[in-house]
Amino acid sequence: MYVRSMSGNDLQAAVTALRAAFDEVAGCDVDLLTRPDLVAALDELETLGCRLPSVSHRLLARLQAETTPPQMGAKSWKEVLSVRWRISTGEAHRRLTEAAVLAPRQAMTGEALAPVLPATAAAQSHGLINAEHVEVIRKAMAKVPGFVDTATRERIEVDLVRTAVGNGPKELKDSADRTLFLLDQDGPEPDERERARKRGVTKHKQREDGMVDVSATLTPEAWAVWEAIFAKFAAPGMCNPDDAEPCTSGTPSRAQIDNDHRSLAQRQHDAMVAAGRIALMSGELGKLNGLPVSIIIRTTLQDLESRAGVGVTGGGTVIPIADVIRMAGHAHHYLAVFDRATGSALDLFRTKRIASAAQRIMLIARDGGCTKPGCTVGAYGCQGHHVEADFAHGGNTNIDELGLACGPDNRAVNNHGGWTTRMNERCEVEWIPPPPLDTGQARINNYHRPERLLHPPDEPKPPEDPKPQDDNNIDDDNTAAAAPAAPADGNQILDAESDAPPPTDDPGEPGGPAPPDHHAA
Is residue 519 part of a domain? Predict the structure, then answer.
């Protein structure tokens, strides 16, 4: 494809002409077209759709050479694309990856270089292959072993492109898999670096029934650790939740062994729960963002009283309220109520920069996770952020001036053309993007609090029956600071530490802080 040099005005004029041509096509009446006319038009549009990404790749590669993400007001190129165009980070990653291998490159000395996959780029620019073909070829070429020489690698790419031109993605993938198998029929020789590269534990999306699928690729050392744990805790009769008093130490009785009808997989699951509880109760896991490593769950007082509904952990896992109550019953320290009896201040004003433990727990209850729109980092991975003004610029360490933010997003807020934040009248943190990323998108992150979408800001919430004050409430001043519209009895929280008052402040840890309308953590 011939590429001519043009100025910014020329490119803008060409793009404007392309949009005008599309508007003309979109305005055509198609009701009277015959089948051959419709098929011919669809063929042309399909070819054009296959060609357009090649232009986007060139522009994106040039943009990456021209500027940096911080100059655009973001911490990464994935964020630039996902914020400006409102696409997922996965889609942004795909586009960046394809641009890296299909766009022309520039050497350190300045001369132009061909794309990493030149045959694929050429076929795409002519509309001969589609996005599915490109993805199959890209992934197949990434799996070509390192011992394959450059000439052979180029030949493999050409063969795959030739196959893609006349076949579908399924046939292309089968051909690619066969080629990779013939290149290295014995598979890679096991070594430490390869094992380290493949190791991992992946938690998949929580299912509608509340269950969570986990897949893992463990190193020999990791499996040796769990092998010993399973030998103890996954033995028949051990850690059986069906027993009135499950055996978690020593040797189970003959009756417990005989009455254990669980499968091996179920016994290993229960062993993992038991091992996790032992680790949490040991008190030797240290601290996470200022709080002892523990399970923190937010829910409503109404759900606790009715024993119906759900709770949400600081990591975003949904737990049925019956399980929340059962978990609290395992240890008295799982349930704590923050009220005037605890003496835990929720307003520190200028006395401390770091939020107190009580504030951090209340923030987890209110925000659920990072408050920046599009960020999926849960509360366990967040810090306390001074929303209106940084502490160095006169900000107060008070509940209604703090919000949760993950480390990178917390550092992205500045007064020099970056992101800015503010607290609205509903005590929600709003994020204003820098000009290069501002396309009028949402200012509030509802990822961690999807229930807010059920009550638009202009829709009044149904009135609730007033309830009498009791000793398990935050005092009036603190309630107003945490959530101005919260009922007086709605600030109960569940944490996983102790029923003693938490420390007011820990200067060695990053801050955090404040809860939602009658929600708890």
Answer: no
CB 473 within 8 A of CB 518: no
For the chain, the average pLDDT equals 78
Q: What domain range includes position 147?
A: 39-183
pLDDT bucket at 331, cuts 50 / 70 / 90: very low
Residue 281 amino acid letter: M
For residues 178 and 215, membership in a common domain is answered with: no
Q: Is residue 512 a contact partner of residue 290, using CB atoms and an 8 Å limit? A: yes
Pair (252, 390) in one structural domain: no
CA distance readout (Å), 389 to 320, 434, 483:
38, 17, 19
Rounded to whole angstroms, the Cα distance separating 118 from 124 reads: 10
Backbone angles phi, psi at 57, to 5 degrees: -65, -45
pLDDT at 339: 35
pLDDT band at residue 190 using 50, 70 and 90 as cut-offs: low
Q: What integer is the mean pLDDT of 208-228?
A: 90
Given a cut of 50, whether residue 511 has pLDDT beyond it is no
Contact call for residues 320 and 475 (beta carbons, < 8 A): no
How crowded is residue 485: how many other Cβ atoms within 10 Å of its Cβ? Answer: 13
* Residues 360, 407 share a domain: yes
CB 130 within 8 A of CB 50: yes
Name the E strands within 252-376.
287-288, 291-292, 297-298, 310-313, 318-320
Confirm if 430 and 421 have CB atoms less than 8 A apart.
Answer: yes
406 and 261 in a common domain: no
Question: What would the two tokens of residue 350 be?
Answer: 């200028």
Beta carbons of 427 and 514 less than 8 angstroms apart: yes
CB distance 393 to 335 below 8 Å: no
pLDDT (tens digit, 9 = 90+) per residue, 359-415? 787 788 788 889 999 888 888 888 888 888 877 777 777 778 889 999 888 888 875
Closest CA to 387 of 203, 514, 199: 514
Residue 215 has pLDDT above 80, yes or no: yes
Close Cβ partners of 225 (under 8 Å, ≥ 6 residues apart): none
What is the tens place of the pLDDT at every residue in 13-66? 999 999 999 999 999 999 989 999 999 999 999 999 999 999 999 999 999 989
Tell me the two tokens of residue 383: 């810090």
Name every residue whose Cβ is closer than 8 Å to that of residue 214 and which is 6 or more positions away in sequence. 201, 202, 203, 204
Q: Specify the pTM.
A: 0.58
Position 234 in a domain: yes
Indicate whether 318 and 454 sit together in one domain.
yes
pLDDT at 182: 87
| Backbone dihedral angles phi then psi of residue 507, each to the nearest 5 degrees | -65, -10
Residues 325 and 466 in one domain: yes
Instruction: Residue 358: name the closest of 384, 377, 381 by CA.
Output: 384
In a shared domain, residues 276 and 224? yes
